[in-house]
Every structure is written in C-alpha cells, then in structure tokens.
Amino acid sequence: MSLSKWAFASDYIRLYAVYKEGGIYLDSDVYLYQSFDEFLDNGYFTNIEFTSHFNKNKSWQMLNDDGTKKDKNKIALPGLAFQAAIFGAESKHPFLSSCMKYYENEKFILPNGSLSIENIAPFVYAHTAQKFGFVYKDKLQKLENEMVIYSSKVFLPSCNKSDFKPYAIHITNGSWRPFFQKLIRFIKGLSIMSTMEERLNEYEKKVPITLIDK
Q: In the chain, where are the structural domains located?
C-alpha cells in the first residue's frame, strides 16, 4: 500500500470481505449480461481466465499431460488462471482462507525496493486451488468444498470474440500495471474508445450461454 498499488491491496480485501460476509465480488469494470442466480448453490465459483498469453508464452510447456504443474512452486502460469474480477463464495469458505494466508505470508517488495507484480491475483488463486483438486485445463471443474470452476466462456476476460452472450465481461482496466504499460494500452485504446459501448452492446444480440457442461 505504501507504493500506492491499490489493486494489490484489493486482492486481499476482496478475499477478506467475502470470507467474512459471503456473497459475490465484482471489479468495478465488470459488465453484466445475465443473472447470477444459477451460481448461488456453489460454495465458491469463478471461471478459467484463458488468454492469448498461454500460446505466446508457450505455457503448456510448464504443465504435465494431466494439467498439473511441472514446477509446483512456480505460481505464475501466463494465459491460464482464475478470473479474480468475478467470483462468489459462502462465508468462511476454506479456499478464501487459504488465499488470504498466501498474502499474509508472502513478501511483495523486491530487494531493490520495487513491487513484484508477477504473482497477481488470478495466478495466486489458481495456484492455491490446486490443493482443492484444480488442474490447469480450460474446462468445467467441480472441486472439493463445493467449489465450481467454469470454463473461460462463462465470464470473458475482455471483449473477446464470442458466439454467445456471456454472463459477464471483465473490461480489464489493469490499474496494477506499470505506468509505461498503461500508457501503451491507453494509446492503443484511443482508436476503439468510441466503439467500446458498441462492442459491449453487440453481445446483447447473441444467444445466452448456458451452464450445461460449461
């Protein structure tokens, strides 16, 4: 917090709030399309965040055939993680407690005084979920303690092309990124800012995705 990286403070605060009270957490840049009522019977729910970084970084080389990590101590696996901007859970859920313990014990300040941004929340949550039965595959997974992890199509990580109307889209403003990365994203985004609302509204015309085998 001393470095004003408020998104990282939020990584812990969101866990604490839902752990204490139960409920659904949404980032402020999440756009909703469908009711979340279907998720309320789960002890915990989110979905896989699967992006182009998986292929760009050849992340499959970090995995065994069964979806387990070759290096179990390596937390970040680019392109395949949890959607940390959209999740819900019952109060006192043990998965949330396990995630909080990671933040309570980890040191985020590097020896040079800068902040480590490698182990962002999507990586941490997915890594922690391994002890509950999670494997790194983009598919519906029903884990211990009534945890349900849906495929990447249920909640989209950006305005990706999709044949279906998702339950929600995370616009991904990325306030945690270094300044130069945010500047590049801003410049690139100037050409599409006028069409962002149009792109989001386009999903309203599509057939809603269902949770059957998702």
A: 6-208
